[in-house]
């Protein structure tokens, strides 16, 4: 769901998981669980903080990840 999109945006920015966690003000383990899909019930507040850290609207986290051809 949104975990793949978070990871895609983060990697496109060239950020580590720890960098995103620092920019979002949340624990790196939370970011890891969100990206891996292990945190199934992520709060709206956490998603807002991740989106703010990435500099994107929350709606961007809900869109499908872009898949490269090939």
Task: Describe it.
The protein has a single domain, classed as lambda repressor-like DNA-binding domains (434 Repressor (Amino-terminal Domain)), CATH 1.10.260.40. 63% of the residues lie in helices and 0% in strands. It has five helices and no strands. The chain has helices spanning 2-12, 17-24, 28-36, 44-54, 58-62. α2 packs across α3. The N and C termini lie far apart (22 Å). The model has no long low-confidence stretch (mean pLDDT 90).
Number of domains: 1
Proportion in helices: 55-70%
CATH class: Mainly Alpha
Structural class: mainly alpha
Q: Which segments are poorly predicted (pLDDT under 50) over 5 or more consecutive residues?
A: none
The largest pleated sheet is described as: none
Terminal CA distance: 22 Å
How large is the radius of gyration? 11 Å
Mean pLDDT: 90
**Annotated CATH homologous superfamily:** lambda repressor-like DNA-binding domains
Write the element-wise H/E pattern from the N-terminal end onward: HHHHH
Number of helices: 5
**Cα shape:** globular
Which CATH-level-2 architecture? Orthogonal Bundle
Which percent range describes the beta-strand content?
under 5%
CATH topology: 434 Repressor (Amino-terminal Domain)
Number of strands: 0
What is the topological layout?
Layout (H helix, E strand, L loop, with lengths): L1 H11 L4 H8 L3 H9 L7 H11 L3 H5 L8
């Amino acid at each position: 769901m949104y975990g793949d999109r978070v990871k895609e945006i983060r990697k496109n920015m060239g950020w580590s998981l720890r960098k995103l966690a620092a920019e979002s003000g949340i624990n790196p383990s939370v970011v890891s669980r969100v990206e891996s899909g292990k945190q199934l019930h992520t709060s709206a507040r956490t998603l807002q903080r991740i989106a703010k850290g990435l500099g994107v609207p929350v709606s961007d986290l809900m869109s499908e990840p872009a898949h490269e051809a090939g």
